[in-house]
Amino acid sequence: MLQDLTLGALDNQYRHRLPEEGDKVICVRGGSIMVARDKRDALTLPTVEQVLAWSGEWDHWHEETLRYIFTLQDEHYFLWMGEAGESGEEAFAYEPARTLRQITSKHVCFAAMTAFHLFCWYRDNRFCGRCGTETVHDEKERMMRCPHCGNMIFPRISPAVIIAVTDGDRLILIKYAGRAYANYGLVAGFIEIGETAEEAVAREVMEEVGLKVKNIRYYKSQPWGIAGNLSLGYFCDLDGDDTIHLDEEELSLAEWHRRDAMPCEDDGISLTREMVRVFCEGNEPK
Ligand SMILES: [Zn+2]
């Protein structure tokens, strides 16, 4: 999976760090992020010196506009919180966040998706949702604080479940309705307030494909920054009738596929694809 990095994990402890030449910067505009394509079509992120040159703020940037967020494999990443202007360089362009999956370097891809999640959280919490006052960053940890009413705003992560519904040698694959990403997936959905993850599994399967399930067991989790999620992967067994009743508002397709004739492979990125592979190999938790 994307976050399975061999050369060291993400160090995202909150710190005050000054930018240095070569540090990477995430610039976001709407749902898009600034990237460059090199001659081999590989995607890269701009550096601190490039962004400061474009923005004309070389000498007077400050922590509110260029914010250190984390270190990954000895590379420091910053968020550009100023005006998201054009680069002026032909190689660079804003591309939709889902394009980040195409970044060939796995650690840069993971860093960019995680940085996008943090950017969205900072952008959406500039004002207190309780009293409307402009918020300030806490000195010691990653938290926005309201100086008027004391509201403390921590990074928001939305828990979701990804569900492999199995029946012996068969697994349900789905396709979402009306989405640009038209590949096969697994049944999935957000956990509601007041619900356990296991309850969300049973509810989502009933809502999306109209089936009862049992023996719900946890597999692994995955942070998925471009959607602000933490995905929890579960396997479960069909309980009773196997007739699929499709939720046509959510899905365009849901069908049983045999273990030895699966139409999609592990992409090395997503928990969904890893779960399909693990099922094909017969190594799912029993
Ligand atoms: Zn407030």
Q: Can you describe this structure?
A:
By secondary structure, the chain is an alpha+beta fold. The protein folds into 2 domains: 10-124, Nucleoside Triphosphate Pyrophosphohydrolase (Alpha-Beta Complex); 158-280, Nucleoside Triphosphate Pyrophosphohydrolase. 17% of the residues lie in helices and 32% in strands. The chain is built from 4 helices and 16 strands. The protein has helices at residues 48-55, 106-124, 197-209, 271-280, and strands at 10-11, 24-29, 32-37, 43-44, 66-72, 75-80, 92-96, 136-137, 144-145, 152-153, 158-167, 170-176, 187-190, 213-224, 229-238, 251-258. The strands form 3 sheets. Strands 1, 2, 3, 4, 5, 6 and 7 form a 7-stranded mixed beta sheet that branches. Strands 11, 12, 13, 14, 15 and 16 form a 6-stranded mixed beta sheet that branches. The longest helix has 19 residues, at 106-124. It is globular, with a radius of gyration of 21 Å. The two termini are 21 Å apart. The model has no long low-confidence stretch (mean pLDDT 91). It binds zinc ion. Zinc ion binds next to loops. Zinc ion is lined by residues 128, 130-131, 133, 146, 148-149, 151.
